[in-house]
Amino acid sequence: MANPDVVLVGFGWTGAIMAERLTAAGLNVLAIERGGWRDTPNTFATTFDQDELRYMWRHHQFENVAHDTLTFRNNAGQVALPMRRLGSFLPGTGVGGAGIHWNGQVWRYLPTDFAVRSHNLKRYGASAIPPDMTVQDFPVTYDELEPHYDTFEYLCGISGKAGNLNGKIQPGGNPFEGWRSREYPNPPLDMTYGPTLFASAATEAGYHPFVHPAANMSRAYTNPLGAQLGECTYCGFCEKFGCGNYSKASPQTTILPILMRRPNFTLLTNCEVTKIELDPGKTRATGVIYVDGKGQTQFQGAEVVMLTAYILHNVRLLLTSSIGKPYDPKAGTGVIGKNYAYQITSSVNVFYDDKIINPFIGAGALGMIIDDFNGDNFDHSGLGFIGGGYIGVVNTGARPIETHPTPDGVPAWGSAWKKSIAENYLKTVSIATHGAVMSHRGNYLDLDPTYTDTYGRPLLRMTFDFTDNEHRMSDYLTDRATDVAKRMGAREVQAKKRAGSYSVVPYQTTHNTGGAIMGDNPKTSAVNRYLQSWDVSNVFVQGASAYPQNAGYNPTATLAALAYWSADAFLNHYQKSPGPLVHA
Amino acid sequence: MRRGIAIAGLLFAVTLAIFVASALTQAQQSALLPSEQVLRGKYLAILGDCASCHTSKDGAAYAGGRGLNSGFGIIYSANITPDRETGIGNWSTDQFYRAMHQGIADDDSHLYPAFPYPYFTHMTRADDDAIYAYLRTIPAVHAKPPPNKLPFPLNIRGIMAIWNALYFSEGEYKPDPTKSVEWNRGAYIVTGPGHCGGCHTPKNFLMADEYDRALSGSPIDNWFAADLTGEPRAGLASWTAADIEEYLKSGRNARATASGSMQEVIGLSTSRMEDADRAAIAIYLKGLPPSAPVKQSSAPDPAAMRAGGAIFVDACSSCHLSQGRGQLRLFPPLAGSATVQSHDATTVLHIILRGSHSLATNDKPTPLAMPAFTWKLNDQQVADVATYIRNSWGNQASQVDAADVAKLRSDLAKGGGN
Amino acid sequence: MPTDHLTRRRILASGTALSSGIALLSAKAQPFTTYPNIPTDQADRPVPADPLQGYLFFTPTEALFVEAAVSRLIPKDGLGPGALECGVAVFIDRQLAGPYGQGDHFYLKGPSPNGEATQGWQMPKPADVYRAAITEVNRYTNDAHGGDFARLAVDRQDEILKSLESGSAKLKGGIDSKAFFTLLLQNTMEGFFADPLYGGNREMAGWKLIGFPGARYNNRPFVTQHGQAYPLPPVSLNGRPDWTRS
Q1: Nearest neighbour of C40 by CB, restricted to B57, B61, B369
Q2: Residue A468: which residues within 8 A CB-CB, separation 6 or more?
Q3: SS3 of B55, please?
Q4: What is the ipTM of this complex?
Q5: Which end of chain C is more exposed for a tag (fewer CB within 10 A), N or C?
Q6: For residue A191, which of A352, A362, A349, A347 has the smallest C-alpha distance?
């Protein structure tokens, strides 16, 4: 029997997207997923999904760090220690990956987000980018990705309002967004009180609020593949939870019903790929080694291997398989592990006496946003940073173990605490800022020298901290958010800046990026503009590992668009003539 | 010289033709090009859903051995592959016709009407011959079904002669000249190969059809096969012909989602029919007068409605939405639902207890599912929420008692249905 | 082919797979070539806490400590029951007796030197933490105040808790008091606000205190009712009193 045309390592969003595209074109595809099967009625039915303890705090659906985690340190002067329990980010596992428990916040990058280096140098001069800030341009433009963003948005039934239709600014949408060729497939979600109050105040302040684009269905929807989704019921159990009534876009709701009926697709679950095998010349992958459900090591041959295993596992696999030159931060050479980035967030709480907010009514991307301080949408002259982020009120829900805000000065326990939460829980609005993280010479991924996973492989080691750029930018956003907060007519406003070094403890976002970045030069990037490895031409690496730095927005829509873009190049060019698609 | 070459060429061509023709046996030729009769027989087997009963869970196609709950005991389906020892490989077309038309096997013994010959008797000889021809082409499988589990005296086949005398009318379908061609086609399928009444017509104490209540609904396998007549609440009165066709094609329409045994019928049979045949079935069914109401229902207990209403809001409305309007072709509407208002609430209770996966077809591939509530609701709660949905938003049907739920729960635990 | 739909049906029933034309060398993996149809009674439901009276994990001394501590962290007062009345001590007991206590979602391989605060928890599994820390806290209170924590006056208990919280209380045995306090407070919050099936939040008192409606899944009718009180009472995964006829 022949090898499959493509073996996919990992089966979350990018795995499902690639599998669907490639099997539609008639290729034989095998996906190997370390976790188990997951679907709506078995894994997160409406009868038991509303369980904050189990899903958020006991991490029932997330990657289990007991088997595999990473080690972390802020800088090379520290010894990296294992991240012994999940906190800052919540990677997925199993069929659907984090595509099950994401919020459904779907953003296109700004056109300038694809050209961070050249654009900022041009506008602000050489001093805008300090020598240790290693930002690079994407080797692909917004215009090239526009049709693929559109494909993903229609796959997912995004509820929203266009802001820029073919160059013409539309009322109600984001006036700063890149042009789009057509309206969103679904109208915006109904809006709760908190975001509405924020939007009024933001307008007063001279900013341009618009509705957050949402992969939560504002109405029942059948996507172009024929998959059906139901209407969102604003349950407030979105982020960190699967959706029990088919109203959040996920691989399960948008792709698997069609994909699993195709005879040329096979899915292996409970099998973890530990290595990509290369030929003796190390220029061609011959297949993958994996550990099956019984703990036996197996080999699976492949014509092409695509890593669709989430940025952290993609990078670790490249390192343990010796594909590409590992990054050396001291010498500044090598590419695998380079330019790891994240997201910097902060918040401003707004406490009312007289307004019932009911923050528990929520959906993952239900909110009102201003983009006035994202990207290079504003003049950075004299501010001391580049990049930006969005600011807004997003009602994802207010589950009480996680969310019981109290004003400054209230103790964390005792009767005074009890009184404060009883008074404030229903009457609080939380404004969030969600900002970019630029790449830095000292922020990178490599293999840990001490700690190992359940198979004895070295853990990935993460060396990362926010730099002055990020702190200045985030504080600036927090100040702008505070300006709006003060106009919201509340009893008090509590700004919570992101202070100090990055910590893996409190949950922030699952927006890890970089480590296998895309570029136009094999000396400074791991994959080319089609996400094909420069070193091993039958290996492709999908996902946010490709991002040279992280933008202000959530990464999912862009990595999905890149997957469609990469699939096109693979089918139209690689299949006809296997080999490097770009000659540097 | 040229003439010589021409003759040689001709001889070569002829030789080649003879070679090609004789290289294939008759059987090989017919295997390459199934005759029209075999194709027609294959389609009729789909209409009859033969594969469903004649294939066991882990067995080969048509090799029999599936246990059917006859109401008196388990009867195992026959092997109808062409195997000469354990199948019907030795049967003639006459013997096959006699089995279909009279319910008599090749050894002259009576077949049990678990094999629905009272319906197949309506089929034409030509149709039976076509099915026979098709069954000759499927792989022969050597497999003997297990012996039936029937109590004395039912295990004596001869006793079926009495049953036949009381309840069986042999005879091919006679078209009604006052009705359209399509109506007659629908009648032929429904009362013949489709054998819909096998599940949908109530049975008397000897498991014979109550012909005067044909297709008015009947319990089977811990489900209630629906009323297919024009009954205004529990039947198809509010369905259009297009609704029926859509349901038969994909198991989901704007009014209902197929559950239980009907999913298999749709998956293996009705979804594979030609559009014209589904349309004919719909025309026939829409022409059925309403069945007589079974019992008057009095107003439900207000305490049941209050408790049921609270459960509905908390546990059901996130898919079926407030006002029970559902989301069309996703989660069936409860308001105005025939399933919900059936005089026999078994289907509704079964779905609440065990949940239900909807059928996935190429037409509607999303495998939607309702979760099981068996652990979340006790018998009284299941009864009350069922009473609530049966009597809200314009619905009207009898109250459900906790005892009914308890019985079904216990029957399901014994492994029946689903 | 007459057989393909039948084998597909059997796949749906049994969840195993046919081989496709692909070289699958392992027969031990779980391959799917169609959508698996898993029966609804195999859904991945939560495991409720053992309703047995008493404690499964805590010794009597430990139980006294935890009861006293959670009573101070969330006291019974004019606003309603506190953590103890809501079953939080039972909740923590059941958690420590179960997989959580054994660190089932913790990476436990050593070495475990102390690190930076930004590197997070470097302690052993929660069951071991409680076992060791309670002993050390009682040792501390005996040294400083002549008795186990549970025997001290409530004002004194509050002082002790504050000093654990700030880290000013130095415990022996290598226990990081701040880390232990953080864990204890976190578990107390969990017990106060988690679904009652886990043993805490009795009668949804934690949710009632703040107005959280619990395990609801349909807020559609209320989204645009800005500023209005939410009209429905809280409900847990196992229902609410109105589900049962009075």
Answers
A1: B369
A2: A384, A385
A3: strand
A4: 0.95
A5: C
A6: A362
What's the count of helices (H) and strands (E) in chain B, helices before strands? 18, 6
Q: Are A363 and A538 in contact (CB under 8 A)?
A: no
Looking at the partner chain, which of B329, B365, B376 has a beta carbon nearest the beta carbon of A261? B365
From A212, A511, A573, A583, the catalytic residue: A511
A220 touches chain B (CB under 8 A): yes
Instruction: Quote the crossing angle between the two packed helices B402-413 and B379-390, to the nearest 10°.
Output: 120
Flag residues of chain B having pLDDT under 50.
19-23, 29-30, 417-418
pLDDT band at C15 (very low <50, low <70, confident <90, very high): very low
- From chain C residues 37-76, the ones with a CB under 8 A of any chain B CB are 37, 39-41, 43, 45
Helix H segments across A214-357?
A: 251-254, 256-259, 311-320
Distances in Å between the Cα of B215 and the Cα atoms of A258, B198, B256, B350 are: 36, 9, 18, 21
- Report the candidate in A73, A566, A544 with the shortest Cα–Cα distance to residue A314: A544
Residue boundaries of the structural domains of chain C: 8-44, 60-208
Å from A510 to nearest chain C CA?
17
Residues A361 and C223: beta-carbon distance below 8 Å: yes
> Which conformational region is residue A447 in: left (phi greater than 0), alpha (psi within -120 to 50 degrees), or beta?
beta
Q: How far apart are CA C152 and CA C157, in angstroms?
A: 6
Fold of A6-37+94-124+140-574: FAD/NAD(P)-binding domain (3.50.50)
Q: How far apart are CA C35 and CA C42, in angstroms?
A: 16
From the number of C-beta atoms within 10 Å of its C-beta (0-12, 13-18, 19+), residue B203 rates as middle
- Cβ distance A84 to C106 less than 8 Å, yes or no, reads yes
* Residue A549, Cβ density class (10 Å: 0-12 exposed, 13-18 middle, ≥19 buried): buried
In chain A, residues with a C-beta closer than 8 Å to the C-beta of C77 are: 415, 418
Q: What is the pLDDT of residues B130-175, one digit of tens each?
A: 999 999 999 999 999 999 999 988 889 998 999 999 999 999 999 9
Contacts of A among chains (3+ CB pairs under 8 A): B, C
Handedness of CA B88, B94, B97, B98 (dihedral sign): negative
- pLDDT above 60 for C3: no
| Euclidean distance between CA atoms A475 and A468, whole angstroms | 10
Residues contacting residue B4 through CB under 8 Å, at least 6 positions apart: none
**Is the pLDDT confidence value at C9 over 50?**
no
Query: Would you call C1 an interface residue with chain B, using a CB distance cutoff of 8 Å?
Result: no
* Contact call for residues B145 and B65 (beta carbons, < 8 A): yes
Q: What percent of chain C has pLDDT over 90?
A: 78
Look at the alpha carbons of B218, B223, B229, B231 in this order and tell me if their dihedral is positive or negative.
Answer: positive
* Domain range annotation of chain A: 6-37+94-124+140-574
User: Inter-chain contact B377–C35, Cβ cutoff 8 Å?
Assistant: no
Extract the tokens encoding A536: 């091993």
Q: Which residues of A touch C189 (CB under 8 A)?
A: 401, 404
Tell me if C244 sits within 8 A of B343, measured CB to CB: no
Of A41, A228, A233, the CB nearest to B369: A41
Helix (H) or strand (E) holding C7: helix C4-14
Give the model confidence (pLDDT) of A128-147 as tens digits. Answer: 999 999 999 999 999 999 99
Q: Is the pTM of this model over 0.90?
A: yes
Q: Mean per-residue pLDDT for A374-395? A: 98
Q: Are C221 and C109 in contact (CB under 8 A)?
A: no
Q: Indicate whether C11 pLDDT > 60.
A: no
Sheet holding A285-291, edge to edge: A272-278, A285-291, A297-301
Is C30 near chain A, with CB under 8 Å?
yes
User: What angle do helix axes B181-191 and B275-286 make, rounded to 10 degrees?
Assistant: 90
Residue in the structure block whose two tokens are 């003639």: B92
